[in-house]
Design a protein that fits this description.
With 124 residues, the chain is mainly β. The protein has no helices and eleven strands.
Length: 124
């Protein structure tokens, strides 16, 4: 059974940093892509960053470009999201998603596997 577990959320002041981690278990091969999504109360879920394992390409939402960095470990079993210069509008539940077969875009949430999420709260 494939599981994704996110860790690293918390509460920080504006301008601070957090690093989220997502560990994949129960899947022997390498995923096609993994991404971070977020959902704030009363808002739709949105893609934040995506990593494509075949070519190591990355994509970011305009709202986080230059502040967030997605990366992976050598074993390709963990994906990270380094979040710097955090803003109150970054407050949301952050979810890790993984897709084994297709190279979805950041605006397509049909990923096969999802974690349960980790809360990020940024105060003024």
């Amino acid at each position: 059974q494939v599981q994704l577990v996110e860790t690293g959320g918390g509460s920080v002041q504006a301008g601070g940093s957090l690093k989220l981690s997502c560990e994949v278990s129960g899947y022997k091969d390498t995923m096609n892509c993994m991404a971070w999504f977020r959902q704030a109360p009363g808002k739709e879920r949105e893609g934040v960053a995506i990593f494509y394992f075949r070519n190591s390409n990355t994509r970011y939402a305009d709202s986080v470009k230059g502040r967030f960095t997605i990366s992976t470990d050598n074993a390709k079993k963990q994906v990270y999201l380094q979040m710097d210069d955090l803003k109150p509008e970054d407050t949301a539940m952050y979810y890790c998603a993984a897709e084994p077969n297709r190279a979805f875009s950041l605006w397509d949430d049909r990923f096969r596997y999802w974690g349960r999420g980790t809360q990020v709260t940024v105060s003024e």
